Write a sequence for this structure.
């Protein structure tokens, strides 16, 4: 009991910069017949739930298939007058459910969920991730991504509606600044 309380107290600073909710993670529906090869390439972050490691502007993610079958994830953002990069690895955990990927940015951390809820591959992608903490609460992430830096308002509204219909609370969702970016 004491070790669980200690662990919970250690997680409070981490969780304060994220979006957390009581109870277990929801399990939203994902993109049927997901095609990873069509999904690869550059996606710009349009809106997101807060993420402690994403504080800059001009945030984008680039996905590329490696020879070993894993996916290179290269995230970039402009923060404190510098372009900052983070490279990770994504894997398809179950070939029968390829829209539920796992992503890790360190050899020492487990793969976190990266679930593509919907995508048309050409303009919009809605992504969700959730980590359960001791079955007491969960930390969740959600992103609306676009192939272009800017999406029409109705497209963003569609992505938000999809997330809300899956029980994901968007009260902390905010737009990512995509102006003044170098292309």
């Amino acid at each position: 009991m004491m070790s669980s309380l200690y662990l919970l107290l250690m997680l409070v600073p981490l969780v304060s910069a994220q979006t957390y909710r009581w109870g277990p993670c929801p399990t939203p529906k994902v993109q049927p017949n997901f095609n990873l090869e069509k999904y690869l390439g550059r996606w710009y972050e349009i809106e997101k739930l807060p993420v402690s490691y994403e504080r800059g502007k001009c945030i984008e993610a680039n996905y590329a298939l490696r020879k070993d079958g894993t996916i290179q994830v290269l995230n970039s953002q402009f923060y404190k007058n510098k372009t900052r990069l983070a490279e990770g690895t994504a894997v398809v955990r179950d070939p029968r459910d390829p829209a539920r990927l796992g992503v890790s940015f360190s050899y020492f951390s487990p793969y976190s969920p990266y679930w593509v809820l919907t995508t048309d591959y050409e303009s919009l992608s809605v992504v969700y991730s959730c980590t359960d903490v001791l079955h007491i609460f969960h930390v969740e992430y959600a992103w609306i991504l676009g192939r272009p830096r800017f999406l029409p308002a109705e497209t963003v509204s569609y992505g938000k509606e999809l997330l809300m219909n899956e029980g994901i609370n968007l009260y902390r969702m905010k737009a990512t600044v995509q102006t003044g970016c170098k292309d």
In short: Residues 2-16 form the longest helix (15 residues).
